[in-house]
Amino acid sequence: MPRTVLLSAILAGVLLGAAPELSGVRAVYLFPMGGGLDQYLANRLTNAGVFQVVADPKKADGVFTDRLGPAFEARLAELFPEPPPPPAEPAKKAEKKEAEEAKPAAGEAATAPEPLRVSSFTRGKGTLFLVQPKTRAVLWSIYEKPRSTQAADLDRTARRIIDRLQRDLKGK
Fold it and tell me: Is 133 in contact with 21 (CB distance < 8 Å)?
C-alpha cells in the first residue's frame, strides 16, 4: 500500500507540471561554467525573460551550476551562510565539557580529520543544475552537452537549455 501512495504522489507531481519550488524562482546567479557557458546562459535567460540574472548571489532565489559536490557545497556555504541557532545556556556548558573531554591529553596523538569524500558529480560534462541556495535542493537539471567550445555551439546549447526550461516552467 505505501508504494501505491508514493507512486500516486509522484504521478500527481508530474501531471501538475513544474515543481512549486521551481516556479518560485525569480532571480538566478550563475556560477562559472566550463567553456564560459554561463555567459551564454545569462544572455539567453535575460533575453527570454525567464529569470532575472543577478550579479550578487545574495539576491538570487536559485543558482545555476554545472558541478555538484564538496567544492560547490563549500562555495554555497560561503555565499549563503546559515545563521547559527541561538545557543541555550545549559547546552553551552554541556558542549564546553564535551569539547574539553574530547581534547587529547598531553602526549597523545590527535586523530587526523576524516578525508573529504568526493562525490560522483564533482565534474560536470554537459549536465546543468538549478539549485535552491537555502535548502541546497536541486530544483531542475538537464543534460545538454555542447558539441565544442566554439561560440556558436555554446550559444546553441544555451538556447536549447532555455527552451527546455521554459517548457518545464509552463508545465509541458
Answer: no
Entry field: residues in the chain: 172
CB distance 152 to 79 below 8 Å: no
Here the cell at position 93 is 556548558
d(CA 147, CA 154) in angstroms, rounded, equals: 8
pTM of this prediction?
0.67
Domain map (residue ranges) of the chain:
20-80+119-172
C-alpha cell, 97: 565539557
Phi, psi of 143 (to 5 degrees): -110, 115
149-155, Cβ contacts within 8 angstroms, sequence gap of 24 or more: 149/34, 149/35, 149/36, 151/40, 154/35, 154/36, 154/37, 154/40, 155/40, 155/43, 155/44
Determine the average pLDDT of the residues in 89-105.
Answer: 63
* Radius of gyration from C-alpha coordinates of the chain: 21
Fold of 20-80+119-172: Double Stranded RNA Binding Domain (3.30.160)
Give the Cα separation of 154 and 37 in Å (integer).
Answer: 6
